[in-house]
UniProtKB/TrEMBL annotation:
This is Uncharacterized protein. It comes from the Bacteria. The keyword Transmembrane helix applies. Keywords: Membrane, Transmembrane, Transmembrane helix. The chain crosses the membrane at residues 5-25, 45-71, 78-96, 102-119.
Amino acid sequence: MTKNVFRSIIAAVIGIVVAFGLIWLAQYAGSEISPDAYDPDTGEVLIPVGSTIALLVGWFVGTFAGGWIAMRASAGSGAGWVVAGAVIGAALYRAATLDDAWWIMALGALVPLAAVWLAQRVAGAAAD
């Protein structure tokens, strides 16, 4: 019993590291493709559509990969859902602190949930 719990904890931590690493890579690529612009008149940072799309792709790919790795390593689905919870928490924190639009907050919850659900299906198929 203790061995399984420890295995799930380690799998979740590894999945979270993988997820956030991939999200960071997607955000970096998005900022290189379409960099943010500063508007000196209003004092706002204008985030282009390309960066937003890269962020959404990063949330999906990061959650999918991290969740899949966690599920395969733990031999269960719980660790993958923990990874999704961490990504959702970070996405909502980011959206709240940067005062993003409501739809970014909604996608910050929906995209990781869809990704981990798909990862669960794929991990289950790979285990069979």
